[in-house]
Write a structure and sequence with these properties.
The chain has one domain. 0% of the residues lie in helices and 34% in strands. A two-stranded antiparallel sheet has the order 1-2. The chain has strands spanning 11-13, 16-18, 48-55, 58-66. The mean pLDDT is 76. The protein is mainly β.
């Protein structure tokens, strides 16, 4: 298992390495979020990608998907 690095950048919390950190401010209403990670062509893995969501450094959601 590796980490997709956003232009050779990564973020570490308690020894866990993440591709990117995005901070959101919840204002009491549902909202949409769109973000991206820039990766050089040919460097994306062909296996399952895992997206993890955390709050205050605690995991609260995890999603797996395959790139097509």
């Amino acid at each position: 298992m590796g980490v997709i690095e956003d232009n050779a950048q990564h973020y570490s919390v308690n020894g866990n390495v993440y591709s990117k950190r995005v901070e959101l401010v919840f204002m009491g209403q549902e909202f949409s979020v769109c973000d991206a990670i820039s990766v050089r062509k040919g460097l994306l893995p062909k296996e399952i990608i895992t997206l993890m969501f955390s709050k205050n450094e605690k995991l609260f959601a995890l999603r797996n998907f395959n790139l097509k």
